[in-house]
Amino acid sequence: MKKTLIYIIVAAVLIGLAAWKIADNKKKQETEVREVAKQVDKINVNVVTVARENINTDYSANGTFIPKQETNQSADISGRVVNVFVKEGSRVGAGQVLATIKKDAIEVDVTQAQNNLQNAIIDNQRYENAFKTGGVTKQQLDNSRLQLKNAQAAVRAQGVKINDTSVRAGISGTINKKMVEPGAVVSPGTALFEIVNINSLKLSVLVDESQVGRIQLGQEVKINVNVLPEDSFTGRITFIAPKSDASLNFPVEVEVSNNGKLKAGMYATAVFKTNHGAETQNMLTVPAEAFVNGVSSGQLFVVNNGTAKLIKVQTGKVYGDKVQILSGLNGGEQVITSGQINLDNGSKINIVK
């Protein structure tokens, strides 16, 4: 009887211990679940601490070189090409004959026009003499003079056609592309040669609206060419567009003398010098990537007790990937630079770096 009672007590103790252990484990699991849930609710973000720094105010803009002059030389008359005197890569001067078009039929027309002119000269001389003696009327003499002028004009017209059988270069430069071979039949306007002049080139870039007021025509500009890192180039601004594009950028052209190494289509960077002295020192800046919906919005997320707080700041000039802050931040704040697309004002955050 006593043994049975002992077994019952021991069994009850074991059951109690098991129940306590299960309850304790459940409590720990619930705690862990709550902690995980807290982490799941947070959005991972990167941050930077706002600080003052010295900023290089040189403004850089990327672009490509384009020829100072380029043209597609075309035919002025219809006909069959009989000679092509240049090839791709040939250097040509303005007025140089590049190709000739068959002119046999035109030469026949020239001969006929010259014969008609001779007849008109003889007829007109006869009418001039007859008018002096009263043999013809003034109207007959005027008609004779008109026929002479028309005959002279016809000879000049045929001379123009003869001249047009020679396709001449409109500019000095290099044959970049040849689109014709002997035997080809061409028409007026048919492009036969592409000529480019790269003795000097134009670097075409886009300048931000915040910077365009700080540059001027004739200003000297340093040029860095990606594929020629050891060479130094300098150009001058020859064009600043009076109107921006849809992105509020202004097309600007910088003319650069070619030392023989530059080619149209090369990628380069124009470095525009600005001199603003002390105002460029000790400047409060934040990365451009920190702004919500672009720099123009002036909106940023800052860290506030483990949450993201949306604030409005007043921006100044843009220097590369840095934006000047005029008001709204004092320095020392942590500004969120990534993950903004997932954030709302007050969202819980987890700082990754």
How would you portray this structure in words?
The structure is a single chain. With 353 residues, the protein is an alpha+beta fold. Among the domains are: 44-56 and 279-351, conserved putative lor/sdh protein from methanococcus maripaludis s2 fold, CATH 2.40.420.20; 60-67 and 197-277, Elongation Factor Tu (Ef-tu), domain 3, CATH 2.40.30; 103-164, Helix Hairpins (Orthogonal Bundle). The protein is built from four helices and 21 strands. The protein has helices spanning 2-41, 104-132, 138-164, 209-212, and strands at 43-49, 51-53, 59-74, 79-84, 91-92, 97-101, 166-168, 173-178, 185-186, 191-208, 220-225, 233-240, 249-257, 267-272, 283-287, 299-304, 307-312, 314-319, 322-327, 334-338, 349-351. It has a six-stranded antiparallel beta barrel. It has a four-stranded antiparallel β-sheet with strand order 2-15-19-18, with no helix packed on it. Helix 2 runs antiparallel to helix 3 (138-164).
Features:
353 residues; 4 helices; alpha+beta; Helix Hairpins; elongated; 6-stranded antiparallel beta barrel; conserved putative lor/sdh protein from methanococcus maripaludis s2 fold; Elongation Factor Tu (Ef-tu), domain 3
